[in-house]
Amino acid sequence: MDQNLRQIEWSEVAEHNKEDDLWFVIENKVYNPTEYQNDHPGGPNVLINLGGKDATLKFDEVGHSQNAIKMLEKYLVGQIKKGSIPLENQIAKNSGSGNTFLYLILLGIIIAGIIYSMF
């Protein structure tokens, strides 16, 4: 934990969940990307949906470039205070998109097998 960074409670992060006042947490660091949201390649809604929450899983899931990771530093506000506990709704869940891809492949194989057996 970097003692030079402002120490922020999860309850304070939760208050910053609006389009014009947007914070999220990645690996216990608190960021304010409010001014960047319209420039985000995935669109502003990606960031807005993470407002006031821990976005670590979502951020890692996408596999951001080194440039994107460096850009985060510009928006650093502080870090989560040791011992502060997030509310259940502050944890952004993994979308499970990897599993969806596997199911689609399996479905394609099954359909191909059915079509093949018909001829």
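The above is record 1. Record 2 follows with the same two-line structure.
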Amino acid sequence: MVNSNSNDWDDVLPIVQLASNYKIRHRSKSAPFSLMFARRLNSFEDYDDQSIADTIPNRPVTEQELIERTDRMYQIVFPAIRERTQKIIEEASKRFNDKNMIIDLPKDTAVMVRLPGRTSKLSPLYEGPYIVVRKTQGGSYVLKDEQNELLHREYVPSELKVVSIDETAIEDTYYEVEDIRDHRGGPGQREYLVKWAGYGERENTWEKASSFSSTVPIDKYWLKRKELKELEQARKQKMIANEKDYTKKTSARPNVTEENKNHKRKDMVQDSTVLRKISA
């Protein structure tokens, strides 16, 4: 409705809101406007037309009629809508349960978390492992990482994959990676210079990719190197362009030929001759 001009969204907001409130919902079989005001929304008609004006009540609704209408909504309409909504929810829940296997993950279960998007086919599908802390009332799970810190959000069962991990790995000490400074070695033997969070630069160590519990720090490192390389290429291209502009401006200056130099010498000789005659 804004024709790709998102700056005009506030101009169309009232009509969009009205259209949404006028639409009949599947659950309630009613429009939100009708349920709110206990009446139908006035249709978009030309009320100057006498045939349409005759359909309008001659008097306004009295206070008693409004009270009776509201009581009818609370006693009949709202209970019926509540009953219908509950049936629809139960049917939808049954269809979902029939198509999806519900797994109850016990506490301390090791799981991997599905990543929301993959930048390439080489990117991992899951990250982790994490440990289940508890199940919420809504059916999602609270997880913790290898440092026993809770993850920032809860996860639904469809995002989790149960895995088996080495029990000795649970007792390993983990440290947080602050940044990767450099790398060395070729593919298959590559190591990364790790800056550890909470430690100085002297404590940096070379680590293999297998030592990381997540590929996120490594991905960030290569992305940063790619951005720096692109910036360096852009800087070189700009320098080349500036040099070409300077050369073009220099070549555009008038060229003093040998013939012009000879003319200037003749003029200087004539001027000096005139000066001698005047002085004589």
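The two ends are 95 Å apart (CA to CA).
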